[in-house]
Amino acid sequence: MFKESKKVLSYLLNPLEMLRTKKVLQVNPTVEGNRVEPAASSFFLYDYNEKEIIVKRLESVKECYAFIDTPNVSWINIDGLRKDTVESICTHYGIHFLIAEDILSLGQRPKMDEINGLIFCLLNMLYFNEKESAVETEQISLVLGKDFVLSFQEDDKRDVFNPLRERLKVDGTKIRQQKGDFLFYSLIDMIVDNYFVVMEKLGEKIENLEEDIVRSPNTRSLAKINLLRKEMIVLKRSIAPVRELVNGILRSDSNLLDDRTEKYFKDVYDHIIQANDLAENYRDMMINLHDLYLSNVNLKMNEVMKVMAVVTCLLAPATVIGGIFGMNFDRIPWAHNQTGFYLAMSLMLIIPIVMVIIFKKRGWF
After folding, report:
1. Helices (H), the chain
2. β-strands 111-115, 118-129 pairing
């Protein structure tokens, strides 16, 4: 009764774990999520060619319309998604309303679509929260058009594109010499490469947990295993569909994709296959860790039972001898002899010693 009460109390004291489970398993796309719109959206422009680049923050959504058809390559990053802002941009850039719905929806499966001559990709950026040992996701939508790329992000405080921004500012770099499809590839490539960073940190957690289980498994180890298995669900759910996404780009006959860019998307395809295989390996490791935990717990229990069995066996002769000489008969051998007590005690000591020697020779402990 006390153990059950303690277990219930532990759940009450850890509501975050229960919320995490609910968040991981809640994947119904037909249910509209509790999406809170930001007070305002942020617009960052990178308009460039081989020789020059314009980097600035746009003050309003209307300023984005001037870069629909320019001789340069334009990258407009929208942080903080408001419904009116997204619908306005999609209307002026000729983006289908179904894509606009996907951009504003939460919990979408990574996918690729080609509508109205534009290529749309939706996938997740992954981050690892060291404090909570949790994999966090941020949905990002990319739209490739003629000499422009639009990226839509929920969080305006973090992303994985800073190295790309720095490369854009350097004259003569490869990305400055290419068209919008190369920028489109670079954005997807940086998202996929960051998957390995997250998996590396998750792998360290798994290795540390494995060492703890081998040294001293306890109930807390089992809780850590369950938490990491939930993170593996998040990881696998985010990574696995990206393979189809990149494969869809490779099969596309769109005029927006240059033949020279195909080899770069093939490289991303190889990376995502590797990431998917690594996620599968981590999943197998988690299953093995669970089996290892159960094996160590059973082994520990067997050791305890072995010690108890040995102690019981060693005390059995003393119990028998004491029981015989404790019977209430008038005549018992050596009952009234001066050395009877010492003889009984000697037998109680000698017999267990002989039993220990026999057990040792047989390798029972």
Report:
1. 2-13, 15-25, 83-92, 97-104, 162-168, 174-177, 180-215, 219-251, 262-325, 340-362
2. antiparallel
Nearest in space to 73 (alpha carbons), one of 258, 243, 236, 319:
258
Confirm if 52 and 169 have CB atoms less than 8 A apart: no
Cβ pair 166, 46 in contact under 8 A? no
Within 13 Å of residue 166, how many CA atoms lie on the same side as its CB? 4
DSSP assigned state of 93: T
Query: Which residues have CB under 8 Å from 197's CB, separation 6+?
Result: 128
Copy the structure tokens of residue 207.
């290795």
In the chain the domains, ranked by start, together with CATH numbers, are 2-296 (3.30.460.20), 307-362 (1.20.58)
Contact assessment for residue 86 and residue 100, using Cβ atoms and an 8 Å cutoff: yes
Q: How far apart are CA 90 and CA 75, in angstroms?
A: 15
Give the helix/strand (H/E) hosting 124.
Answer: strand 118-129
339: Cβ–Cβ under 8 A, 6 or more apart, which residues?
none
Q: What pTM did the predictor assign? A: 0.78
For 165-224, how does the pLDDT look when each residue is reduced to its tens digit (9 = 90+)? 999 998 888 998 899 999 999 999 999 999 999 999 998 988 888 888 888 777 788 888
